[in-house]
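Quarterly update from the structural biology core.
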Amino acid sequence: MKRYYAALSLSLFLIGNSALAEVVVRVNDDEITTEEVNKVLMEGTQGRFDSLSSDKQNELRHRIIEGMIAQELVYDDAQKTGVLESKEFKHEFDALQSRLKVQLASKLWEQEQFDAIRVNPKEVQKYYDTNPNEFIDKEKIHARHILVKSRAEAESIIAVLKPLRGEKLKNEFIAQAKSQSIGSSAARGGDLGYFSRGQMVPSFNDAAFSMRVGMISSVPVESQFGYHIIYIEDRKPAKKMGFSMVKSVIEQRLKMDKFKVSMEKKIASLHEKAKIVYSKDR
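Predicted structure, tokenized:
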């Protein structure tokens, strides 16, 4: 039953974000939207895109967009060279339409089943009260970094930054990140935004969370990407999220759990009523 759970989760995500779609790039007469890019990103990361670091998200988004541009260019050329008129294309297209018909009907049927599920408000409150550890907003830090290829480069930058304090340190760090960093966050002054423990590679994570606000790393931090100089801009302590903040999330989770159980029963019932004959080669 996992495939029903995953398929509906993705379709709900796309439905919720379709109104926010904006054009990312135009390729000849075609448009690639944020909705289309987000769909590929979520499918490619199995729904874990938001848990990736800012640098990784930006890198992956760039690769996906470039790949989609290439696909549009190939499609345009295929039209010009007559691929769409070939017997092979028409045969494959007809087969694809048949598969899509089944998939779309299944998707809409699942949506109807999901919409019919009801969750009692008392169930939502009870879940919140009995699972307090699930609703802790983890400690987060807001960091910047400068990424360079060699330890010597990193040590040279640290030597420039070390005597500075306060706003002077922050401003110079941003300037150095823009001019020296090879990371994708360079244009933003090395800004990585807020992240919690475990979102960055281990060496970066350990160094960053051991530092105080307003500090830079006193020695280069090595990772598989190169050498980092880290600056801690802010820190948010862990805190319990209020019921109003997570109410809708809990409701969706409980609804999805009920949906999963309901689907298992429905599929089992349909399976019993159907005439299913397996081939001998199965």
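Residues 1-20 have pLDDT under 50 and may be disordered.
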